[in-house]
Amino acid sequence: MRILFISSTRIGDAVLSTALLDHLLRAHPGARITVACGPVATGVFARMPGLERLITVTKQRWSLHWLGLWAQVVTRRWDLVVDLRGSAIAWMLLARRRAVMRGGRRPGHRLLHLAQTLGLSPAPRPVAWYAPEDVAQAAALLGVGGGPILALGPTANWVRKVWPAERFLELARRLTAPDGSLAGARILVLGGPGAEERTAAAPVLAGLPGAIDLVGVASLPEVAAALARCALFVGNDSGLMHLAAAVGVPTIGLFGPTPASEYGPVGRRAAAVLAEGPPGAAPMADLPVDAVVAAATGLLARAPLDEVLA
Questions:
Q1: What's the mean pLDDT in 15-25?
Q2: What are the residues whose beta carbons fall under 8 Å from the beta carbon of 133, sequence distance 6 or more?
Q3: Does residue 123 lie in a domain region?
Q4: Over the stretch 130-168, which tens digit does the pLDDT of each residue have?
Q5: Closest CA to 288 of 274, 305, 267, 309
Q6: Is 16 a member of any domain?
Q7: For residue 122, cis peptide bond before it (omega within 30 degrees of 0)
Q8: Cβ neighbours around 55 below 10 Å, total
Q9: Contacts (Cβ under 8 Å, ≥6 apart) of 237
Q10: Domain that holds residue 204
Q11: How far from each other are the two terminal CA atoms of the chain, in whole angstroms?
Q12: For the residues of 145-176, what is the DSSP string, one character each?
């Protein structure tokens, strides 16, 4: 079975879309899947089982990127075309079945909207794929040292989604203090590539001079493998937050001006903490450290540390 899967340009949406891919791989063992996605999201799918081809779709003027994608896939007859971008391309290809996600904002979590594209209920959960070589590289990047690791994600693709750096610093100190939930834990700071991510993470790194700095220096599969070794992830609403939840590490997502009801982290051990004020319209400065500490403590209590580190 050959499947064309058109996914997202952003990492967070791409991670959520892995829920559908995992379902398709289970439903159709041996399927050969071509994934088309934006440049920054390619790492989400790089280690996917059954991946036959990964096509990078770089946005162009006058939507010429769609024409370029069509030219690369038109010569094949597809058993299934899944288009999460709601474009017309699915109707311009030979296909036995098409599943096109409709666009526009609507109530409910994004994962439910994705599941509806294939008529799935309940919605499957996102997954994270990484290989043994990613595990080895992550181990090298994390270095020696035992005990738990607290991962922080202080960056985001929109400055208004960023929790103040001094709050991350206070949170890290309280959680890793002798009487904290992660007493003595090492701290890992994560972020994407590029100058903006480095600038956003700089105050947190400066305030935590002993932290492991993986901002922009690891691939997404390597980051997933590193997260799998962490006891807790706390970060802004971002692709890294969704990746952490997909890996299965206890995950706290911080929300203010974006709706957690639509983009909260999804997983067995994931929770969103909202700033005080109107949901989806509150400033991040109105999210107190006490609320995040309480959420982290409660989440870790439901996920014993020996289970997290297993």
A1: 98
A2: none
A3: no
A4: 999 999 999 999 998 888 999 999 999 999 999 999 999
A5: 274
A6: yes
A7: yes
A8: 15
A9: 12, 156, 161, 253, 254, 255, 258, 260, 263
A10: 132-308
A11: 36
A12: --S-EEEEE---SSGGGPPPHHHHHHHHHHHH
Same domain, yes or no: 39 and 159: no
Tell whether 140 and 229 lie within a shared domain: yes
How many domains does the chain contain in total?
Answer: 2
189 & 96 share domain: no
Cα torsion for 304, 267, 44, 29, to the nearest 10°?
100
* 145 lies in the same domain as 107: no
Taking the C-alpha atoms of residue 169 and residue 167, their distance in angstroms, rounded to an integer, is 5
**Tokens, residue 105:** 């904002």
> DSSP string spanning 267-278?
STTEEEEEPSSS
Structure confidence by residue, pLDDT tens digits, 258-285: 999 999 999 889 999 999 999 999 999 9
- What is the CA angle 49-59-16, rounded to 5? 40
Model pLDDT for residues 54-69, shown as the tens digit of each residue: 999 999 998 899 999 9
Q: How far out from the chain centre does Cα 62 lie?
A: 29
Structure token digits, residue 7: 């996914």
Domain assignment present for 125: no
Cβ atoms of 293 and 175 closer than 8 Å: yes
